[in-house]
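Quick one before lunch.
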Amino acid sequence: MQKALFLDRDGVINVEKDYLYKIDDFEFIDGIFDLCKYYLNEEYIIIVVTNQSGIARNYYTEDDFNKLTRWMSSQFLKEGIKISRVYHCPHHPDISGSCSCRKPKPGMLLEAQKEFNLNLENSLIIGDKERDIEAGLNAGVKESYLFDSAKLVTESAATKIVSKLCQIGDNRC
Ligand SMILES: [Mg+2]
Ligand SMILES: [Zn+2]
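Model of the zinc ion complex:
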């Protein structure tokens, strides 16, 4: 059965900037391409799962998000990296009510499981927030990495806390 590398977007693929939607503000994090290449080579597919409450808050539109997603995917493709799918949650509980997709809920991962017939137990997730790790655990994803470049986090339910992306997988640092 297919296994997946689940990636959070903001703070893992790109440098976290509040409610980012402009291509000009999108800055890839060091090591993200090498990390993806490593896992593709290990026969994982790559799936992005991202909370985008900026849409519920009307800071940007679905269309803005889709444009940025197409551009981001094309930058990955230039590196020979196929992103199989980008799932996003456009909701915010205070504005659009509760939903089943906003992490830490596992909705997006479960959707991906159905679409790609994934073995979630053998998949892994990388996030920069504890809610990413929890979403993984809630979906039955056992291996997880909390990416904390500022080295501020001391406790996490993740398999490991890392400060560089090259520490995940084989040691490429
Ligand atoms: Mg994030
Ligand atoms: Zn949602």
